[in-house]
Every structure is written in structure tokens, then in C-alpha cells.
């Protein structure tokens, strides 16, 4: 369950019980699933695994009311008498957080881990490098952060406007910071997947080590597709093997992101070489759907389908596992209405209702494809989100709708928005999330006069 239960079964006892803690028993069942029974005798949780227990405890927290989401203060002591049987629809319930375009301090990443956990999301994909900044400390190559972690200025609004922010921007995570994030997430049954983007979106690395690039140049201050990409010299391949070795040492997860998107004129050999290196180290490469055109990919490669669902369908038919994240449905930096009050309106209109109406399973799938549809992911790109407040505005409450899509059965609940307004927005208030109100932005959430690029 996410906002309020829409699980396999839910029986409300019609009375309140005093909350005196819980007891957990591990039983057979679907991964991540649980049964929660609340009665005068207390709360009994039967879970398939420890992830299921965590999911049950989040449900219990929801049943206790919005004040249970506050860090301190008087806690509620009564819960409804009920029985809930529930489990997730998809194995991969993820969020991509772009910390390369605009850096989020470690404390904000840890806060987002908490928010993902509260919504029963279990994958955090960190986009750590791009043209505009390198955020991962590589001890063998210190200039990646000394030079590549900051830029002199940033485009403010759409690139066609010519406007600039007029201030430097930067920051990076030490390896100790990232190990802390990984462990903090692990304790909440969230996998952190790192991404080093190659061969495009690499201008920050090229600024630090010009010999890596086809062309030179400093850390990019603009947005969009950059034609300056990595070269395919063997020395460049060796450089990135070393980078990915340090990355895999910090991140113990099975899956390692290598990007592969928007690289004009690149033949894909670097992507294939690094993918093979990842596999030789016992891990699985994970890349955007352009990697399908880079040549034969190692067995075990996972494809993120962002340019619609077609790439994902092709990948499934070729035997690859797939995560659906099409920009038309789950790019949460895209504008939320046609209103002129939307700050820096980019992309297509993607309303709360649009996100909730989406089904991650494409209609053209037959079920006989050799690859597996692992689940779905919402992507939060931060070209125009320069603070945690702006990320909150873009992500919520649409991320709550996405969380219910990837957890609940495919059938939609016509009462979803009402449930959200009555029950979940007070929880976000208690958590301090500066979400977009359902009727449009607060005055202080607007950015009048800053041009975007609506489609």
C-alpha cells in the first residue's frame, strides 16, 4: 500500500485499538509482501522477508496518522482494528535523482532516502556525472573533483533565453559520504545504483583531463545535448576502467549505471568496453536505451527505456531486462500544467492524474518476451531545479502517484486524488515536503519571467 491501502485485501474492523508495538513473524509469500493484523491484542506482522517487514511498518505508520511522520512531538496511540494483506506489483520501484546538474548536499540525499522509504520505493539511481559537474570522488584522478565538480555559471531558464544565474555552482561527494548514503539506504531496504555517464555528458571530465575528449573546453554552463564527447582511445578506456573500479568498490550493488545516452557521432565502443568490464567484475551494466544501438551488449545488461516505451519493448524481445521510465509519463521535472504560473515550464504537461493513469506494462507485450520487465522508475532531472525546495515542488505529489502505480494492481482507483488530498498531503506536510498544491503553485514557488521550453 502507498497512500492508503489498495492492497490484495483490506478489512476495517470499524474500531480503534491502542497501539502497543508489534510482533513480526517471517512466513512464505511474495517478496516484499506482508500481512498486518491490528486488534486489541496488539499488531501482528507476517512478512515474507525483512523488506516485507519494512513495508508493513510503513503501512503501520500510515495507519497511525500524519503526526506519526513528524520527527518529534506527541505521537498517536490508537490505530484502526484491521487486517491488510499486501505486496508490491513490481520488483523495481525506483527514482533517478540527478545530482550532477545541480548538486544536492548529502543531508538532502539522505532526506530523499527517507522519502522513498515512506513511499515504499526501493531503488535510488544517482546520476553522478554530466557535462555540468562531476560529483564522485575518484582518488586516482583528483582533478575530476578539483576541476570538474564546479562551474563558473549556470544557464537560468531555457538556453534560448540567454539568461545566466550569475554565480558559480559546485560540490561533490567523498567516497565516505557515498558509503554512508549506501548504508543509510540499505537499512531501509533501498538499493543505491550509481551512474557515471559515458561517452556523452562528459564535459566535466574532459575539463579536468582534456586528453579524454574529442574537443576540449571547460565544465559546461549550458543545458542540452553537448557534441563534445569522449574519444575512444585505449588510454580513455583504461581511465574509465579505473574510475568504474573505484565506483564498484564504493557501491556494493549488483547494478552499475554507465549512461550511454545522447552522444552525437559516437560508435559505442567505449560503452561496450566498460559494460564488459562491469560484467567481469561480477556486476550488471545498466544504461539508457541508446545503448541498444551501440552493438552487442553483454548478457545481463539492463536497459532503461526513456525515449518512450519502444526501446524497452525492443530490449525485452532481445532478451534484456528492462526498467520503464518514458519521458512522456514519468519525467518529474516536466511542467505540471498549462498555467503560466508553472516555474520554468519545460517538456510536455505531466499532471498528477497523468502519472497515476500510466501503466508501466506496454500494451504490445505478449508475455512471451525472453527479457524481464523489472519495473519502472521516475526521473528527476535538475537543470531547472537548483535547490531541494525546487526538487520537492517538481517531485511531489506526483511521486506519490508514481509510488502507487508501481506498488498496486494495474486497475486504477477513481478515488485516488481524494485519498491523496485527505490522507497523504497531511503526511507530506508533517515531513516538511514543499510539494506543489493541487490547485497550483504557492506565490513563492513561481518564477515569473524565467523562460522555459514547453512542448
UniProtKB/TrEMBL annotation:
Keyword entries, A-Z: Glycosidase, Hydrolase
Enzyme class label: hydrolase
Domain of life: Bacteria
Gene3D superfamilies reported for this sequence: Chitobiase/beta-hexosaminidase domain 2-like, Glycosidases
EC assignment: 3.2.1.52
Domain Glycoside hydrolase family 20 catalytic residues, every copy: 90-265, 272-409
UniProt xrefs under InterPro entries: Beta_hexosaminidase_sua/sub, GH, Glyco_hydro_20_cat, Hex-like_dom2, HEX_bac_N
The Beta-hexosaminidase bacterial type N-terminal domain, residue ranges: 30-87
Record's catalysed reaction(s): Hydrolysis of terminal non-reducing N-acetyl-D-hexosamine residues in N-acetyl-beta-D-hexosaminides
Family: Belongs to the glycosyl hydrolase 20 family.
Name by which UniProt lists this protein: beta-N-acetylhexosaminidase
Originating species: Lentzea indica
Organism taxonomic ancestry: Bacteria, Bacillati, Actinomycetota, Actinomycetes, Pseudonocardiales
Amino acid at each position: 500500500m502507498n497512500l492508503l491501502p489498495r492492497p490484495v485485501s483490506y478489512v476495517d474492523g470499524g474500531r480503534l485499538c491502542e497501539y502497543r508495538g508489534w510482533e513480526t513473524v517471517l512466513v512464505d509469500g511474495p517478496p516484499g509482501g506482508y500481512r498486518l493484523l491490528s486488534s486489541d491484542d496488539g499488531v501482528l506482522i507476517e512478512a515474507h522477508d525483512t523488506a516485507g517487514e519494512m513495508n508493513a511498518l510503513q503501512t503501520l505508520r500510515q495507519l497511525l496518522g500524519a503526526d506519526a511522520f513528524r520527527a518529534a512531538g506527541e505521537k498517536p496511540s490508537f490505530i484502526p482494528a484491521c487486517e491488510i494483506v499486501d505486496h508490491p506489483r513490481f520488483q523495481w520501484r525506483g527514482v533517478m535523482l540527478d545530482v550532477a546538474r545541480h548538486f544536492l548536499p548529502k543531508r538532502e540525499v539522505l532526506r530523499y532516502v527517507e522519502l522513498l522509504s515512506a513511499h515504499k520505493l526501493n531503488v535510488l539511481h544517482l546520476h553522478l556525472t554530466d557535462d555540468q559537474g562531476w560529483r564522485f570522488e575518484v582518488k586516482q584522478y583528483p582533478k575530476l573533483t578539483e576541476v570538474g565538480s564546479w562551474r563558473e555559471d549556470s544557464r537560468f531558464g531555457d538556453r534560448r533565453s540567454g539568461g545566466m544565474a550569475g554565480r558559480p555552482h559546485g560540490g561533490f561527494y567523498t567516497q565516505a559520504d557515498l558509503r554512508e548514503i549506501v548504508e543509510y539506504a540499505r537499512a531501509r531496504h533501498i538499493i543505491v545504483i550509481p551512474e557515471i555517464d559515458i561517452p556523452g555528458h562528459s564535459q566535466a571530465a574532459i575539463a579536468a583531463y582534456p586528453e579524454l575528449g574529442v574537443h576540449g573546453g571547460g565544465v559546461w554552463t549550458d543545458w542540452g545535448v553537448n557534441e563534445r564527447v569522449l574519444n575512444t582511445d585505449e588510454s580513455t578506456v583504461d581511465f574509465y576502467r579505473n574510475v568504474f573500479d573505484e565506483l564498484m568498490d564504493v557501491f556494493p550493488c549488483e547494478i552499475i549505471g554507465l549512461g550511454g545516452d545522447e552522444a552525437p557521432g559516437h560508435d559505442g565502443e567505449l560503452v561496450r568496453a566498460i559494460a564488459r568490464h562491469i560484467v567481469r567484475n561480477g556486476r550488471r551494466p545498466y544504461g539508457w536505451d541508446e545503448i541498444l544501438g551501440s552493438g552487442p551488449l553483454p548478457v545481463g545488461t539492463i536497459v532503461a527505456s526513456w525515449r518512450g516505451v519502444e526501446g524497452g519493448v525492443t530490449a525485452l524481445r532481445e532478451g534484456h531486462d528492462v526498467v520503464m521510465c518514458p519521458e512522456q509519463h514519468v519525467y518529474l521535472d516536466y511542467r505540471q500544467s498549462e498555467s503560466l504560473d508553472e516555474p520554468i515550464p519545460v517538456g510536455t504537461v505531466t499532471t498528477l492524474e497523468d502519472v497515476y493513469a500510466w501503466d508501466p506494462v506496454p500494451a504490445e507485450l505478449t508475455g512471451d518476451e525472453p527479457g524481464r520487465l523489472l519495473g519502472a522508475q521516475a526521473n528527476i532531472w535538475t537543470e531547472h531545479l537548483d535547490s531541494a525546495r525546487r526538487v520537492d515542488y517538481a517531485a511531489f505529489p506526483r511521486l506519490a502517484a508514481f509510488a502507487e502505480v508501481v506498488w498496486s494492481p494495474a486497475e486504477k482507483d477513481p478515488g485516488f486524488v481524494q485519498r491523496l488530498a485527505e490522507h497523504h498531503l497531511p503526511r507530506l506536510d508533517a515531513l516538511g515536503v514543499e510539494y506543489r498544491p493541487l490547485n497550483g503553485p504557492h506565490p513563492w514557488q513561481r518564477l515569473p519571467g524565467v523562460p522555459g521550453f514547453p512542448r
